[in-house]
Amino acid sequence: MFEVSIALAKLLLATLAFLLIGWFGARDKRIGGVLLTFPLLNGIAMLTDADPVGIAGTVYLVVMWNCVLFLLAIYRYEWLPPLPVSWGEQSKISARSLFWVALWLVGATVLAWFRDDLSSARWLFFLQLALAVPYLWRWWSTPSSHPSPTFAAMWFTRQGLLRVASFVLVFAALSTIAYFEKDARWVGWASALPLPGIFALAMLSVTQARAGLLSLADTVLLGPLLVIPFNWLLARVIIHLRSEQAGAIAEIATVVVFWAFAATLVFVFLPLFARWRDRTAA
Q1: Separation between Cα atoms, residue 251 and residue 228, nearest integer Å
Q2: CA 108, 113, 117 angle in degrees (round to 5)?
């Protein structure tokens, strides 16, 4: 029963992440960029029976690959893959989502196999920092001004509900396949699948101007700088709680507290940084 509850919670939270990423991506691109890799599903994965440290070890590597994939998608979505001009919006969203998921599967699976040789939270954090700093300095874009859609206008329409239903079906299918394997390596692999971000980005690629997507790319590389310490610390706290036999409720409460802290960093401090960077880039 606990496993079923975790699976349902993961589906509900993933769907919520898809809705919020799509909406914030349309309203505030800098926040949307970090939310593409927000550790929502990583926290849920820690509540399974798999080893938390093993889960975290896979997540470190895969979330960095996620950033590479998102940057490729943002800058080259027109030919990744090339699609007929005559295709409608929903067809393009579906084709891009499936193609990007296929790319993710290849890269993430290779990294998961070599996790034991490559996964070091400290070195990966500093490697990501070394990549993010020059990118933020060299390619920070000019903020674009455009009307912001309301949540209802974006999602409570026939097309919006169809996109949500498509996301739920694909996510449920992939999660079912992933959880046939209980090894921490693959639980971490599944929890790092950025399906909410992939679907949201595919949607934004057909509903937003290119300039807006480039603003989304500004903060994509900041995601692992949040995710890596989040998972490193959460894994060790969960292990401590289990050694103390604190119970499932204590573990769930801990994950929620970690999410709240991570969300505070994103929604409070990121806008301050973005305004400072806009001034220095002007």
Answers
A1: 19
A2: 110
Mark residue 245 as left, alpha or beta (left: phi above 0; alpha: psi -120 to 50; beta: remaining).
left
Tell me the C-alpha distance between 158 and 254, whole Å. 38
**Angle value at C-alpha 86, between 83 and 91, nearest 5 degrees:** 60
Task: State if pTM tops 0.85.
Answer: yes
Cα gap 226→167, rounded to integer Å: 25
Look up the domain containing 159 and give its range. 2-281
Total count of domains within the chain: 1
- The pair of three-digit structure tokens given for residue 123, joined into one six-digit string: 């070195």
* Contact criterion met (CB below 8 Å) for 199 and 167: yes
* 222-261 pLDDT per residue, tens: 999 999 999 999 999 999 999 999 988 899 889 989 998 9
User: In whole angstroms, what separates CA 88 from the centre of its chain?
Assistant: 26
pLDDT, tens only, 25-61: 778 889 989 989 988 888 888 887 778 999 999 999 9
The first and second tokens of residue 154, run together, are: 């974006």
Are 34 and 212 in contact, with CB atoms under 8 Å apart? Answer: no
Phi, psi for residue 245 in degrees, rounded to 5: 55, 45
Q: What is the mean pLDDT of the chain?
A: 87
Closest CA to 45 of 193, 224, 228, 245: 193
